[in-house]
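Bug #77: duplicate submission created two jobs. Keeping one. Sequence:
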Amino acid sequence: MLGNISLDMFVMRKKKSSYVIALLMFGAAVVFSLIEKVTMSNGSEGADGTFISVFTSNVSSCCLFFGIFFVMFACTDLKNGYIKNVAGSVSSRMGYILSKETALAVYILLALAVNALGAVVGSTLFLNGIGDLDASDFIVYIAELYVLLLGFMSLIVFFVFLLRNSTGPMIIAVLLGTNLFGNTFYRLIAMLLAKADIEFNSNYISVSGQLASVRPGADGKDILVTFAVGAAYIVIFNFLTWCAMEKKDIA
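Kept job's structure:
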């Protein structure tokens, strides 16, 4: 399995999309800084002109970029026809899945660092710099983002190996990454449950909703919910991916 992880890391380093997506995230952070400067100059509330404000806004919007890259990378072996050879080199199909996800997990960390760098550059050039940043709150926030993005990755990888193509998963990634699907689907559920006087909060079951709403300095209950949602997606969708791989021939 270690050999497969090394191979996946090598493929990731060679893929142009790895660098293109990272550059897009960096550029988006700088653009968000400029937008926030314009917003502040117009006297609008809700913008404080600091690194953390830019970073949180950019990470939420970059879910789309993450989703697109997850599909592109997970489809690499399917696209070039190497999946039978590569998957056959590990003792189990779960090992093949975890190899891909380990490489993607490393990419998520690097992409978050690129997002942070872009936010630092943007906020320094156009806004008030880093500002008052609570290091402990920020570390917990990064950990929350990381677990949620791992859950989001597990969801996208599941659809890749279930559908065995890039078109369907790419559409799903775009809908989830922009939260279009979540906003519509969960709103319908909330309307139905409201008729039964049941309050429904989509953030408790939606990884995309959590990514859009999580912020530094959350209270303990919200932090636990965030970790629970991310962990649930990781476990459930890795199991479903394994089931999808076991029930189909690798070709």
